[in-house]
Amino acid sequence: MENKDVSAEQAWQQWRDDENEKWRESHGWLTVTSLDWLETEPASLENFPGTWSFDGDFIHVNFTQDDGVILEGEPAVGEFKISADADPMPEFISGAKLAEIASRFDRIIVRVRDDNAKLRSVFTGVPTFDYKPEWVVPVEYRKYDSPRSRDIFTAQEGKVRKSDFSGEIKVPFSDRTRTMAVTDAEDPFVIFTDKTSGKETTAWRRAPLLEMDGGWVVDFNYSSVFPAHFTPFGTCPRPVAENIIDVEIPAGQKKPNETFDSVNA
Predict the structure, then answer these.
(1) How far from 29 is each of 13, 163, 232, 258, CA to CA, in Å?
(2) pLDDT tens figures, 209-240
(3) Whole-angstrom distance, CA of residue 94 vs CA of residue 108
(4) For the whole model, what pTM was predicted?
(5) Which SS3 state, helix, strand or coil, does residue 109 take?
(6) What residue ranges of the chain have pLDDT lower than 70?
(7) What is the residue-wise DSSP string for 167-220?
(8) Percent of the chain beyond pLDDT 90?
(9) CB–CB of 76/62 below 8 Å?
(10) Alpha-carbon span 14 to 20, nearest angstrom
């Protein structure tokens, strides 16, 4: 058992390192510097050239030669008409900046990602609790016959969206067993708030549901933060009511030391 625990801890340490490298990626979440909601009238963005608008069906973007914007390696000049259903959306480049177009809450947003963002340059890694084998918790997983869609709150105040849930788990905590909703059928996980949230940890986190020894476990050592915990420009999902639990889970990632707000204050 000791060797198994050592091996599990080594795998967790590699995950922790990989997570920090993921956050540091070019045009990753630490590089987001603004979020704009497109309107029907053409307007400039806070941190990117051109004029932008959305008519309900199409996104309209206009650049001049002097804007110096690039699309797929070529100068982007003139008007670009982009379907709101386009997949993937085009990504415009201006120097170290990338303009990301996305559909959120029946509207169109543009996030600007800047590889020279201060947050990316000062990031020291997400702190964690020590690995604890006792937080690999065996659970009873009941899958739904088909995904169930529910309205959920998000990181954007007052914004609600649909999310599919694949089932529910019964988690035996020390005081009593709690039922929690599971997101995603292929790589299931739970989004939760616990009694460490807002103190040592962020307001909510996510933990993976894993197959192990013929059953299922939730490994809270892998509890991770969301992009919205680094930047106010995320639209990440919040936990549903039954996943807000009055238990301390001192495992996984803690609050980031550096955030967009703290480094740009």
Answers:
(1) 22, 22, 11, 13
(2) 999 999 999 999 999 999 999 999 999 999 99
(3) 20
(4) 0.93
(5) strand
(6) 1-6
(7) EEEEEE-SS-EEEEEEE-SSS-EEEEB-TTBTTTB-S-EEEEEEEETTEEEEEG
(8) 96
(9) no
(10) 10
